[in-house]
Every structure is written in structure tokens, then in C-alpha cells.
Design goal:
By secondary structure, the protein is mainly alpha-helical. It contains eight helices and two strands. It has one domain: Arp2/3 complex 21 kDa subunit ARPC3 (Orthogonal Bundle). Helix content is about 70%, strand content about 0%. The radius of gyration is 18 Å and the shape is elongated. The relative contact order is 0.16.
């Protein structure tokens, strides 16, 4: 989904750059409440894993590409604010050193993959966690659902940006169909990988998974109540 330089006009690229800077600024403040001796090392591992996962690119249409995003995965493992920072660092390194995504389009890519994918992924995960049984075995399915939802959401926002400021001679309707169809398939892969990774970590060290903390806190409270009785 990396957007290249010149694919969107200057006003659109500038607007997404402003949105990206505002989002990263908020994330820098919010991450202070998430990062501790457990999540800080995990954040580095998550960024490395996402970086590796995004190296597999699939051509979509009009010079764009699709790949695993990792926004929902990062949000569940280290928290949404920290996830925004992880994805932003990954995208910055890719743009500067690997020519994956354009420098002038960095704000657009951060907006799509570090903001939209993370926010949608976290919202869907939090909603699914409320609906599913309150136990650690529900964390992985909720994360998988979040992973699936985050991918077409980012693709849809890209199509909206292309409709507003796209520079390629391609009909926006064609772009929408191509992006949503391809990214629906990619979303299935994202769901599988997200669910497997989160489920593996939960099975071994649930305390390292940020999204599992409310469930663990409730379980500890129930145990204390039983012991008190």
C-alpha cells in the first residue's frame, strides 16, 4: 500500500503530512502511559517484525502495492499509541533507505498505515474483546478480526485520497474495486498472521500483550476475591 511520490497532488500530500505529524505528536504523548519495562522491549520486536512482514509486496494497480500492514498486531501487543510510533518508524526507514514509498508521500503512508490501520484495528479489537468471553483465549480471535478490518479500511481511505488528489489517469471507481478486492484477500492473511502471533504470545506470556491486560486484571481480581472468602 506504499504510495509513491507524485501519485497524489501537493495539497493532498501536504494535508496528509499535517495529519501524520499531528497523529505522531499525540502518539508520543500517549505512549508514555503504555511503555514500561514489558512493552518497551516488545515495541522494538514488533517494529522489526512489521518491517520484515512489509517486505513482501503484491502489485495492485496504477503503481501501488499491497502488503501486510501490522497495525492491528502492533496495537494489540504494545498499545495503540506505541503502535503508531512503531509503524511510523518502520515507514520512515523504508522511505529513506529502501525507496519503499516516497519521501513527499511519507505523510500519506503514515496516515494510512500508522494511523488508520492502527486506530481501526484497535477499535475493532476493543469492541470484539467486549463481546467475546472475558478470557485470554478470546484475545487472539479478537486480534484476528481487528487485523482483517484494518486492511480494507486503510485501502478505502487511500481511495478517498486518490479521488480528491490523484494524479494518475485512472478512474477512482477502478481504483476502489482494485484496492478493496485485493486488500480483502490480504486482510485474510493479515488476520491469520495477527491471530497466530498474538495467540502464541498470549499462550506463553499473556502479561506481555497490552490488549490482554484488562482480562488479566479481572482474573486476578476474581482470584483475590475467592481467596478473601
Amino acid at each position: 500500500m506504499h504510495v509513491p511520490d507524485g501519485f497524489l497532488d501537493a495539497p493532498t500530500s501536504l494535508a496528509t503530512g499535517v495529519v501524520a505529524m499531528a497523529g505522531v505528536g499525540l502518539a508520543l504523548r500517549g505512549a508514555r502511559r503504555e511503555l514500561d519495562d514489558r512493552t518497551a522491549p516488545m515495541a522494538g520486536l514488533v517494529a522489526t517484525f512489521v518491517f520484515a512482514g512489509q517486505m513482501m509486496n503484491f502489485p495492485v494497480a496504477a503503481g501501488t502495492s499491497g502488503h501486510l500492514l501490522g497495525g492491528a498486531l502492533a496495537a494489540v501487543l504494545v498499545g495503540p499509541w506505541s503502535a503508531v510510533l512503531c509503524l511510523s518508524v518502520v515507514l520512515l526507514v523504508q522511505a529513506l533507505f529502501m525507496a519503499d514509498g516516497g519521501i513527499t508521500a511519507l505523510g500519506t503512508n503514515v496516515t494510512l498505515m500508522a494511523l488508520v490501520a492502527v486506530v481501526v484495528g484497535w477499535v475493532v479489537f476493543a469492541g470484539a474483546r467486549r463481546v467475546l468471553p472475558r478470557r485470554t483465549s478470546s484475545i487472539a480471535p479478537a486480534a484476528a478480526l481487528a487485523g482483517f478490518a484494518s486492511v480494507p479500511a486503510a485501502a478505502a481511505v487511500f481511495t478517498l485520497l486518490f479521488t480528491v488528489g490523484g494524479q494518475a489517469p485512472v478512474d477512482p471507481g477502478t481504483v476502489l474495486v482494485a484496492m478493496l478486492s485485493w486488500h480483502a484477500v490480504i486482510g485474510v492473511g493479515e488476520a491469520v498472521i495477527t491471530g497466530l502471533v498474538v495467540g502464541s504470545v498470549v499462550a506463553v506470556r499473556p502479561d506481555l500483550v497490552y490488549g490482554a491486560r484488562p482480562v488479566l486484571a479481572e482474573r486476578e481480581l476474581e482470584i483475590r476475591e475467592v481467596v478473601a472468602r
